[in-house]
Design brief:
heterodimer, A: mainly alpha, B: alpha+beta, six-stranded antiparallel barrel, 12 strands
């Protein structure tokens, strides 16, 4: 049932992008924007396997890049989130995962996303990244990521459970 | 470890995103303009709805800091507040919007700018390092690229990309933004550039011997045809000056008049004034009646001598 999985991933990704752009980035919280998109991708990767994590990351990245509120190159977020979505699910054997470990991976992933964006933007010749701000952005992204993952990982795991029997974890 | 199908899917995705980056790096309209337009029309509509729902919560960061200080007091009042808030939130929100619209109309009226009001519906995440927002007006409302965006407090930024019913606005604090600025009163010219921090801008004087000091207000210098920046709009107030007169790199730190973290109602200047309004749009500057400071007399004399000078080429 590829259709059902696709629909599930699509809905999760779309909602995450919508919440991030319209609510979380407007809260005026110091540091990075709480990255619900990356946390959701990591959660999908945990629940449905690294391949679906990678697909979710790709979709979310493209959607963020094309959204009218951002001015990034199309594909930059896609490649970063794709790698993160794959790595998060591939890293540990599903049997070794405890919630604290998963929260740690989610925090690392959000930090990696923030840092990766800074690196890729600089490598591609962008002049926006202020490197004195990067450590603070990365650190705050990790903190917010950890907080969000406490909610998001169990939520997505629960929502994906009916699908899990049919997903062959590659 | 991985199945053949998984490996193929992964390589397709990686190659696709790298191809997208390379295609988009070439700049111009590119192959993504239609995709962007499609996504923006879908997202824009939903974001407009979502923005209405979340508008009472935006700027919650500030709310949080006071919350920590006065948590005891707040706890006592919470019960009462909750009951009253549900009724008040919508009313307060409307009053706040009316106030913002009033302020916007004042700036537009005093400066004779013709503006189109719009609502900020989405903000790019901070980890993109780009300070861009989406507004709910687009080419159908008469917006074009490089139009000035203001609110009741002053300059916000300029229109970067225009879609049917949404547009991307790059804010003045974006590190890639630079605006031609003028010190109100002394007429010294310089360039205001974004620093990537929401409460500070850098103002670099063109004349290293020019005078600028803390408390000076900076207004836009104006570009040819009022694009991307219309003249005479308040940008911010100088809070700090580094370097001494004559030094090559004299940089003043400027605090923007607008509150970048709590943008809501904005106006897009579709038609700049025929004459530079000078300093008349600055906050607490007299609007032709009472004159507590000497700014108006100097500005009126300067108006004559600068009226003949040609419009500056670029901001």
């Amino acid at each position: 049932m590829v259709l059902r999985e696709g629909l599930f991933i699509g809905t999760c990704v779309f909602l995450a992008v919508l919440i991030e752009l319209t609510l979380l980035s407007r809260l005026g919280i110091p540091g990075a924007t709480p990255d619900i998109v990356v946390v959701s991708i990591v959660a999908i990767s945990f629940a449905a396997g690294p391949l679906f994590g990678a697909i979710a990351g790709f979709a979310a990245g493209i959607l963020l890049d094309l959204s009218p509120s951002s001015d990034t190159l199309v594909g930059v977020n896609a490649i970063i989130y794709l790698i993160i979505g794959f790595t998060a699910g591939f890293w540990l054997d599903p049997r070794d995962r405890k919630l604290p470990v998963m929260i740690g991976i989610a925090a690392l992933s959000t930090a990696a996303a923030a840092f990766g964006t800074a690196v890729v933007d600089t490598v591609l010749g962008g002049e926006r990244v202020n490197w004195t701000e990067v450590p603070w952005i990365t650190l705050s992204a990790a903190l917010y990521g950890a907080l969000l993952s406490v909610l998001i990982i169990p939520l997505i795991a629960r929502l994906a459970r009916p699908l899990l029997t049919e997903i062959s974890v590659s | 470890m991985l199945s053949r199908r998984a490996r193929i899917t992964l390589s397709i995705l990686v190659v696709a995103s790298l191809t997208f980056v390379i295609l988009d790096l070439r700049g111009g309209d590119g192959p993504f303009s239609s995709a962007r337009a499609a996504v923006s029309s879908i997202l824009g509509g939903i974001q407009r709805g979502a923005a209405t729902i979340v508008s009472p919560f935006t700027g919650a960061g500030e709310w949080w800091s006071t919350q920590v200080e006065q948590s005891g007091q707040i706890r006592e009042l919470t019960a009462e507040n909750e009951r009253l808030n549900s009724a008040l939130v919508s009313v307060e929100n409307n009053i706040e919007r009316a106030d913002q619209l009033d302020a916007l109309l004042r700036v537009a009226g005093v400066g004779r700018y013709r503006v189109i009001p719009a609502e900020v519906i989405a903000v790019g995440p901070a980890q993109d390092f780009a300070w861009t927002v989406a507004i709910d007006a687009g080419s159908l409302d008469g917006l074009e690229e490089d139009m000035t965006v203001i609110n009741g407090d002053g300059l916000i930024g300029r229109v970067l990309k225009v879609f049917d019913s949404t547009a991307t606005v790059v804010l003045i604090v974006d590190p890639e933004s630079s605006v031609g600025g003028r010190v109100a009163g002394s007429q010294e010219l310089g360039i205001v550039s974004g620093t990537g921090r929401q409460n500070s801008l850098e103002f670099q004087l063109l004349d290293p011997l020019g005078q600028v000091s803390s408390g000076d207000a900076i207004v836009t210098f104006g570009s040819k045809g009022g694009r991307p920046y219309a003249p005479g709009l308040p940008i911010g107030e100088v809070v700090d000056v580094t370097g001494t007169a004559g030094e090559l790199a004299r940089i003043a730190t400027v605090r923007p008049f607008v509150d970048i973290s709590a943008l809501s109602l904005v106006g897009v200047v579709v038609k700049p004034p025929r004459k530079d309004p000078r300093d008349s749009v600055l906050p607490n500057a007299p609007s032709a009646t009472v004159t507590p400071d000497p700014a108006p007399s100097s500005s009126s004399s300067q108006e004559k001598e600068t009226a003949a000078t040609p419009a500056p080429s670029d901001g």
